[in-house]
Amino acid sequence: MEHLIVHKSGQLKQTVNFSEESLEFFDRRSTISWRHTFFDHYEEASVILDFSGRVLSINPAFGKMFDCTQKELLGKPLIFPFRNLQQEFYKMVQSVLNGEKIVYQQLLRRRKNEDQMFPAKLTISPVFSSEEDIKGILVIIKDQTEIDEYKTLIELQNETLETEENMLLDITKHIDELIILFDLEKNKIIYTSPAFERKLDLNLVDLYNKPSLLRKRFDIEKPKQLLHFFKCTNSGHRTLEFKATDLRKNKLRWFLFEITPILEMDGTVKRHISILRDITELKEKNNQIKQLDQLGAIGQMAAGIAHEIKNPLTTIKGFVQLLSEQAKSEYSDIILSELERIEFIMGEILLLAKPQTNISFKKENLNKIILEVMSFMHPEATIHDVVLNRNLAPIPAVSCEAKQIKQVLINIIKNAIEAMPHGGNIRIKTYYSEGFIRMNIIDTGKGISKERLQRLREPFYTDKEKGTGLGLMICYKLIEDHHGTLHFTSEEGKGTCVHIKLPVAT
Ligand SMILES: Nc1ncnc2c1ncn2[C@@H]1O[C@H](COP(=O)(O)OP(=O)(O)OP(=O)(O)O)[C@@H](O)[C@H]1O
Ligand SMILES: [Mg+2]
Q1: Which atom of ligand 1 is closest in space to residue 443's alpha carbon?
Q2: DSSP for residue 480
Q3: Would residue 498 count as lying in a domain?
Q4: Could you tell me the residue range of the domain that residue 408 belongs to?
């Protein structure tokens, strides 16, 4: 047969004629040397054994792994790496003789350091001759130490992740902020923190299945704006403040919504995490601070002008009285009553401005104070066709300055009378509950709208032609000086209830 011999450069060197026999020799030789080259350079430790487990050949990687040479082992049973494995080895030989390939994990020993076992993966397969007969058994040994270390590392990481996850869950369990994880693609809430259940009494599972439940619980002021804000796929961090009425408690609340999008690898936003904070108390405190600021300004102003006004006022009043004695005029009474009104307003402003240093708190019976105020206010109420009723339960004493509590009661009763221009009823109730004495002053007047309710403690907030808008502000201040609280509930057209809570005297 003619063969072309080509030079490395690609140029034809010569044509040669080989006999069939010599070609077969070349073929066999090349196969054998190819197999050898492969076996010798294979980087996993490999050994070829005969059926009784004697070594026929080892590769350099095997020699290196077990610290031995081909010469040393040739024809000898391979025992040391396996030691306790002889029985099983013969079973395996049987399987391999049936042409099967077996893979299994085993702890092996090195020759030098016999005490140290290492995990290995053994691949045992038959070695075929060119006639397809099984001539021996090839054992490839792969050191698993690093892989096992890797596994332990992963296990360790998983454990850490698990503890971190538990820690995170623990944290979310106890924080008061409401956390929502939202899937924008599925349009579904995937996580809500336990605070939802604790604070809003909303069941998490229910909320998962029916996000609309949130809307039933709260009357949100601008729901469309809120929905747009929530579903927007913007990649930036954003916040929104919104008002909502807690329908169960009929109370207006302020919330701060903070959304942080979770960016995917491609920069798109498929989910976002939002934190919802109830900032009602913060808002109320801020308002109080604003009012206190206003109060401070009023105080400074009042201190300044009171001195300036008081003296000329006394002089004017004296002269008007003198004039009215000499020549009685129809205007002198008006002038005098207006002057008295100015004096009254000055008194109110000074009460707010002056720090109360000489207050003496005494143990008093609130019911007794109420009865005195009721008899004092009776003529005023009767003129306006208002009936004063009472429901006074036996209550423990409070520690208070009776004069100040009387002033609070007078201001509130006056407001109630003024809210009923065509007459009505005022009921004063007292009772004891949980360490506090509660007092309710309930009228059947025109009521107060939600918006106005928020502003009652602002100075000069009035809807009356001759009102100062300071009455309630003084009430709030005096009750808070007594470590109590004051709040309003009202329904327009039906009436108003003033709730006062004072601590029991110790
Ligand atoms: N019982 C009530 N029913 C309806 N509105 C009320 C009632 N109490 C207070 N208000 C509203 O609150 C506002 C503020 O009351 P506040 O006592 O501070 O001032 P005023 O009554 O207007 O003025 P002043 O007390 O100096 O006469 C009132 O103008 C009124 O609109
Ligand atoms: Mg008033």
Answers
A1: 1
A2: H
A3: yes
A4: 362-503
- Same-domain status, 51 and 114: yes
For residue 503, how many C-alpha atoms fall within 13 Å in the half-sphere facing its CB?
10
Enclosing H/E stretch for 482: none
Which two three-digit tokens encode residue 52? 């009784």
218 and 295 in one domain?
no
Same domain, 60 and 125: yes
In a domain, 382, yes or no: yes
The beta-strand segments (E) located in 264-379 are: 269-278, 362-364
Distance of CA 403 from the midpoint of ligand 2 (Å):
17
Ligand 1 first shell, C-beta below 6 A: 411, 415-416, 419, 443, 445-446, 448, 456, 461-464, 467-473, 496
Say which ligand is closest to the CA of 474.
1
* 100, two tokens: 């099967």
Give the total number of structural domains in the chain: 5
Give the distance (Å) from ligand 1 centre to CA of residue 439. Answer: 19
Q: Give the ligand 1 atom nearest the CA of 415.
A: 8
Q: Is residue 245 part of a domain?
A: yes
Sequential DSSP letters for 223-289: HHHHHHHHH---SS-EEEEEEEEETTTTEEEEEEEEEEEEE-TTS-EEEEEEEEEE-HHHHHHHHHH
Point out the domain boundary residue: 333, 353, 373. Answer: 353
Same domain, 168 and 189: no
Provide the residue type at 91 as one letter: K
Q: Are residues 187 and 223 in the same domain?
A: yes
pLDDT in tens, the chain (506 residues): 444 444 444 444 444 444 455 445 455 555 555 556 677 888 888 888 887 778 888 888 888 888 888 888 888 877 666 655 566 666 777 777 777 777 877 777 776 666 677 788 888 888 776 666 777 888 888 888 877 777 777 777 777 777 777 777 777 777 777 888 888 888 888 877 877 777 777 776 676 677 677 777 788 888 888 888 878 777 688 888 888 888 887 788 888 888 888 887 777 888 888 888 888 888 888 877 776 666 666 666 666 676 677 778 888 888 888 887 777 677 788 888 888 878 777 776 666 666 555 667 899 999 999 998 998 888 889 999 999 999 999 999 999 988 889 889 999 999 999 999 999 999 999 999 988 999 999 999 999 999 899 889 888 889 988 788 888 988 998 898 899 999 999 999 999 999 999 999 88
* 160 in the same domain as 138: no
Helices 280-326 and 330-353 pack at an angle, to 10 degrees, of: 150
Q: Is 62 a member of any domain? A: yes
Nearest protein CA to atom 19 of ligand 1, as residue: 469
Q: What is the DSSP letter of 236?
A: S
β-strand pairing of 424-433 with 386-392? parallel
Q: Which one of the ligands is nearest to 496 CA?
A: 1
Same domain, 193 and 158: no
